[in-house]
Amino acid sequence: MLPFRLYAAVLFVSSISLLFPPFCIGTRSFPTRAIDGDDAFELGSAARARFSEAPDYRNGGECAVSLNREMVSSCDPSLVHIAMTLDSEYLRGSVAAVHSVIKHASCPENVFFHFIAAEFDPTSPRVLTQLVRSTFPSLNFKVYIFREDTVINLISSSIRQALENPLNYARNYLGDILGRCVDRVIYLDSDILVVDDIHKLWNISLTGSRVIGAPEYCHANFTKYFTDGFWSDPVLSRVFSSRNPCYFNTGVMVMDLVRWREGNYRKRIENWMELQRKRRIYELGSLPPFLLVFAGNVEAIDHRWNQHGLGGDNVRGSCRSLHPGPVSLLHWSGKGKPWVRLESKNPCPLDHLWEPYDLYKPIHHHNPAKFQSLSSISASTLILFSSYLS
Length: 390
Description:
Helices cover 31% and strands 14% of the residues. It is an alpha/beta fold. It has a domain at 71-306: Spore Coat Polysaccharide Biosynthesis Protein SpsA, Chain A. The strands form four sheets. It has a seven-stranded mixed beta sheet with strand order 5-4-3-6-11-8-12. The protein has a three-stranded antiparallel beta sheet with strand order 1-2-14. Strands 7-13 form a two-stranded antiparallel sheet. Strand 4, helix 4 and strand 5 form a beta-alpha-beta unit. The longest helix is centred in the C-terminal third of the chain and has 17 residues, at 368-384. It is globular, with a radius of gyration of 22 Å. The chain starts with a helix and ends in a 6-residue tail after the last helix.
């Protein structure tokens, strides 16, 4: 029988190994070296969740060669720029989204990610940066800190609390956050999957003086996005008098940042948010100000690039099916998120399309039989929807 002190030491080491699993090939845990103080404590609590290292996707021979292969600069003209938010609540979705982009990109090494992290996120931007690097060792990316007080006094209450998150408004500030040499960017929400080559979306032209491009949905009832008080006010509703406004989803946008900065569109959006604080003109969160500024003057992109609404409506979060037609991007906008429904063992059918891109690995041991069962379900579901993904 072990002496008490030795027994206690074994227990202590065992506990530490559970919280900080050793570095190993194939699965990267949160790195603990070069982290001290508060970050070390935070890393311990975050280590209950970890991610497998993604495959190392490389460029083909037809890809443009970077100016500096050793250290890629965000100013490199050969790059495709993607902006996404990065936070602890949607982290699992963000990792799956990044995985899907680089998996299907024809030139994955030419994709550069700009991650916007909240200053006061429960998991600090520093730890989130370490996590991205350990999951995607060869990914080109930069993490920017978004100060919530930039927008907190402009946010009004919404029909769902999640829509009030200040990070939802980070897209309004991309022209200020990203370097001036970044003149164009694709903005993507964290609850998406790209199942096509992102370079196709990048190469879409924004004609005339258009600042953004997005799939439009002109059959949607546009009036429902604003209150009766808005429509009954002849001055306010006049904003659409010279336009034919259509609904578009701001979770997938191609943005010309040169025109954005020149037109001071950040301030235009803020002006509507300030008015909303004084008198209620809409019920949703960050979408209506974008509609007020851009609806009717958007470069219409093929619907295949935003099969949105897969999360269900913003109240019940019921299951949805795919829209008719081909699919390049799936978007779980709405209340229900695939990782939450899968974890609760109550997934919608389309959630199984998201599952193969999920790199999340909980700390507890997997049941091999259960894992095999889930794999079989995923495979059969993919076969069922293969016609959409061709």
